[in-house]
Amino acid sequence: xxxxxxxxxxxxxxxxxxxRLRRSWYRKHAHHLPRPVxxxxxxxxxxxxxxxxxxxxxxxxxxxxxxxxxxxxxxxxHGRGVRVVSAGQGLLLDARTAGDEPALxxxxxxxxxxxxGPDRYQDGLAALARLDPAPDLFLLDDGFxxxxxARDLDLVAFPAPDPFGGGRLxxxxxxxxxxxxxxxxNAVILTGVPDWDGRGAALASALRSRGFTGPGFASVxxxxxxxxxxxxxxxxxxxxxxxxxxxRPAAFTxxARDLGLEIAGELSFRDHHLYTDxxxxxxxxxxRPSDASAVLVTSKDRVKLLGRLDALDVPLAxxxxxxxxxxxxxxxxxxxxxxxx
Length: 341
Fold this sequence. Notes:
Elements lengths: L9 H20 L7 E6 L7 H14 L4 E5 L10 E4 L8 H4 L1 H9 L4 E4 L3 H11 L6 E5 L11 E7 L27 E7 L5 H8 L9 E8 L3 E2 L10 E6 L4 H10 L3 E7 L8 H11 L6 E4 L1 H7 L10 E3 L2 E5 L1 H14 L1
Parallel strand pairs: 1-5, 1-6, 2-4, 2-5, 6-7, 7-8, 10-11, 10-12, 12-13
Antiparallel strand pairs: 3-4, 8-14, 9-13
Helix pairs in contact: 4-9
């Protein structure tokens, strides 16, 4: 595994300089919350396996007896201001108001609070004032580029199918920031690998030339049992229509095939799509002639479609996906938390 050479086009150099100036400014002006902040983010524009990783880390810290609060921007939501999506007892807001990923996390993580808003510092202060128990720590979702809030640990996810995003910045590449920005991370995680064996260490080694000095770990993506939203399992080999609004629909298709499901067709929308009435009609029109037993979606799409296809007589099923980081990652994280505490 080798990181690509830095881009040398005038635009890429200019864009990289802007990012360096931004990082320099925020080193002096970032806000500090009175609790530890652990950021989980990426350098890519979507599709890094970050959300399942956030869920796994939140559950691990919760199970250590900590009051965890996830802070998220709520990308794509129509809500305004600071919103408590969950105080730890279940979902309080719908996906349209909260955002699809915060709604998913709130529904799947009992005992973990989720707060969204445009200013993560103000969100954190509101969480400390309004939640009972008050958070012991904040888990910053999609936080690597959110420099306005200081963090105590920066964890960065890299998708195994495209770890370096071609090495180029937007708009001609798939990176939010130059690869050199990884020098400020504490650890990197290669997500979506088939096994752990040495892959995380290889990623860390490839990033040494960009100034990264921390450890690297690997995380396997493990699908759960596909099931109808009624709770009934999908029969083995069921014929399904895949519907996705995620950054990497091909990865979801591959998981469904690996489970032995028969793919009747695929319908993809842009990442974070909120599914309008016209979108529901498109799904129904694709489903009726497909001879599929259900529409199969990701958990992120399930929170936006639940109950909305019933009137169209379209059964909805979900394929849960979980991140499973290697044991060495949990040992490292526990050590870092003990240091922070």
